[in-house]
Amino acid sequence: MKHIPFQLELVPDLPNIVGNKDYKDFRKLLERIEEVLIFSGIEDLAVQSFIESHLRIGDNEEGFISDKGQISSQKERIKILVVKTLRCNLAR
């Protein structure tokens, strides 16, 4: 009868270490800022304000966002950039 060699793991799984106290505190702070931003609606207000201040109506060259023919992917990209900008400025 032949034996099949099979080695068991010698080292048990180590517990996950999330991080030190400073990291945990900073993470909690960022999570709280995110909650405030989501529930307050300030992100939507910032996007709306940005679009209104940069809107180009018809042939008027005041802004760079045209009200004609703008597709939803462009609007979504603008929204993402404005939200990222707002969050980065708050994180500083």
Could you explain how this protein is built, in words?
With 92 residues, the protein is mainly alpha-helical. It has one domain. The chain has helices at 21-40, 42-53, 72-91; strands at 55-56, 65-66. Helix 2 packs across helix 3 (72-91).
- Give the helix proportion (percent range): 55-70%
Q: Please indicate the percent range of residues in DSSP E strands (runs of 2 or more).
A: under 5%
The tally of strands reads 2
Largest sheet: 2 strands, parallel
Q: Which whole number gives the mean pLDDT?
A: 77
The chain-level structural class is mainly alpha
Backbone CA Rg: 25 Å
SSE series: HHEEH
**End-to-end gap:** 69 Å
Number of helices: 3
Q: Which consecutive residue ranges, at least 5 long each, have pLDDT under 50? A: none
> In order across it, which strands form the biggest sheet?
1-2
Tell the overall outline.
Answer: elongated
Give the domain tally. 1
Structure summary:
The protein has 92 residues and is mainly alpha-helical. The chain has helices spanning 21-40, 42-53, 72-91; strands spanning 55-56, 65-66.
Describe the structure using short key phrases.
2 strands, 92 residues, elongated, single chain, mainly alpha, 3 helices
Please write out the topology.
Layout: H1 21-40, H2 42-53, E1 55-56, E2 65-66, H3 72-91
Parallel strand pairs: 1-2
Helix pairs in contact: 2-3
